[in-house]
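Section 5: illustrative case.
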């Protein structure tokens, strides 16, 4: 049951009671129900506006996805890609890298410009033994 329906139900109950217009309590109850009716109408209008705005926002989001596809040539699949976090030893800035950036073996820190090098050679005993054989 919506707010508007609930207030309409209260109005019906009040009319069924047969309010006495000369009674202060009945005048007060009638005024309260009228205010509730106004509030319910406002809430209903706001709910309708929110639904309309949500629909428009969905349409804009779809249009933006199309523009991104045209400009960048890919769909929004960033959530599927793995990112790696590296801390710059010079400035302490956190830098996020994808697998393509790691393959370059070095990049410049976007904050301070220091070259960050990536070495994937293994120094463990097992790898050193394999290399010596």
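Designed sequence:
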């Amino acid at each position: 049951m919506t707010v508007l329906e609930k207030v309409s139900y209260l109005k019906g109950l009040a009319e069924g009671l047969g309010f006495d217009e000369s009674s202060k309590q009945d005048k007060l109850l009638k005024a309260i129900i009228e205010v509730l009716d106004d509030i319910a109408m406002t809430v209903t209008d706001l709910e309708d506006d929110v639904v309309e705005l949500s629909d428009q926002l969905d349409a804009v989001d779809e249009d933006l996805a199309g523009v991104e596809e045209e400009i960048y040539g890919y769909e929004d699949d960033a959530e599927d890609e793995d990112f790696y976090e590296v801390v710059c030893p010079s400035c302490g800035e956190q830098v996020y890298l994808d697998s393509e950036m790691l393959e370059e073996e070095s990049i410049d820190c976007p904050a301070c410009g220091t070259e960050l090098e990536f070495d994937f050679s293994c120094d463990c005993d097992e790898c050193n033994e394999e290399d010596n054989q």
